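I have a small job for you when you get a moment. Would you make up a two-line entry for one protein for me to read? No commentary is needed, just the two lines. Write everything out right here, beneath this request.
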Amino acid sequence: MEPRSIMMMFGTTFLLFVAVCYIYMSLALMTIAAKTNTPNGWLAWIPIANIFLMLTIAGKPAWWLLLCLIPLVNIVILIIVWMAIAEARHKPNWWGILIIVPVINIIVPGYLAWAD
């Protein structure tokens, strides 16, 4: 195989992985919105608007969206937001802290969405 073919296969696989993760996160966030009776759950599918939806679920002010756009500050803000989302789903708030742990951060939204 030539290097160009290998790079194309890698790129295609990577894009497929990103698409699957995006669909999974959007479905999880939409389900969390539905279970917390938050309006406009369809915002989960729109980039940046999904952060606004997360803030609404968490009961945080909309201006925190600006804080989510600042590097390093966004990590702290998103941990706080995910902790509030966990509380909104009547789960322990430490589930929100797990969002910073690699691999576990894939499990957390699914747990908060579909575990009852």
Notes: The first helix runs from residue 3 to 35.
